[in-house]
Amino acid sequence: MDRNLFEAMHSRTNELKKIAEANKEPTFLDKFLTNRYVKAALKTVLFIIAAVFCVLLVLYLMVGGMVFLMLNAIFNQFTSDEKRVQEELAIHLKSKYQEEFRIEKVEYNGTLDKYSAEVHSVAKPDYKIRVDVSEKNKQFVFKDDYVQAFWNAELKETVYPKLQELLPEEKYRINNVSDYHSLYGEFVDENAIIFGPKYISFQEAIDRQLFYLDVRYERLEDGTAVEDELKNVHKVVDLAKSFRINRMWIEQRSKQDRRELRCRINDVNSINSMAELEKVCE
User: Fold this and answer.
1) Which H or E run contains 75?
2) Apex CA 85: angle with CA 81 and CA 89, to 5°?
3) Among 185, 198, 200, 220, which is most buried by a count of CB atoms within 10 Å?
């Protein structure tokens, strides 16, 4: 009996809810959204948004494809130019020096708009040669430092061992001993300096002041006075004198206090005292 009463009351409650909902006044939002003109406008707006999205997507894909094609074309052009540089450089060096060379790498410098190459002589693997490659009237122009590589090899056999005696490895680290003077384009036939009847020996190059010694080393000890550093540099200058090298650049760095001492000497024979050395050092 109680159960039937409960069900009857529940049914009556649902009926009352339905009557209340039927008699409920619709809100402004309900009226707005159910308006057929509003519905048509919303459909139009959604269609326009979808159309715009599709157009933008197509444009994005088209522009992205064009950019990809442009980048791919530029990459292929660079690859083609590098290959052409390698091929023509190999022919140029073999014709100029009558020997084979191994081209290690070719790099493009966008700022200077030129290529640089690192080359090694097959017959003399220790010779590292740099080549600058520029283009003029659609023709490559090559400038190499093979002469410097040739002279640097002579330095390694002559000056470097003596320099090691002056700068023992427990106190100093020698970073560079080479020809400082750039020979790019200075001689009409650079190969004549190395080969043939016009051959110029290492000592002849020094005597003709074609050579510019570049010595750079690092002092490992700390706390050395400037005067002591100059004395050490003076010994290096005397070493250059013993080889009759007239021009040189000396750069000494301190590992501990980051101090640097640079000396540009255009006539080593004029350096006979510490006071004269101080004038050309900074």
Assistant:
1) helix 36-97
2) 170
3) 200
DSSP β-ladder status, 172-179 and 139-144 = unpaired
Structure tokens given for 80: 């083609």
> Distance between CA atoms of 232 and 170, rounded to whole angstroms?
15
Task: Give Cβ neighbours of residue 216 (< 8 Å, ≥ 6 apart).
Answer: 174, 175, 176, 177, 250, 251, 252, 253
Would you say how long the chain is, in residues? 282
Q: What is the pLDDT of residues 32-42, one digit of tens each?
A: 556 677 677 77
Domain boundaries, given as residue ranges, for the chain: 83-143, 147-279
List, in sequence order, every residue forming a beta bridge with 176; answer none if it has no partner. Answer: 216
Query: What is this structure's pTM?
Result: 0.62
Cβ proximity of 79 and 87 under 8 Å: no
By the 10 Å C-beta count (0-12 exposed, 13-18 middle, 19+ buried), 163 is classed as buried
Q: How far is CA 27 from CA 31, 32, 43, 102, in A?
A: 6, 9, 22, 87
Give residue 126's identity as a one-letter amino acid code: D
Give the separation between CA 245 and CA 250, rounded to whole angstroms.
13
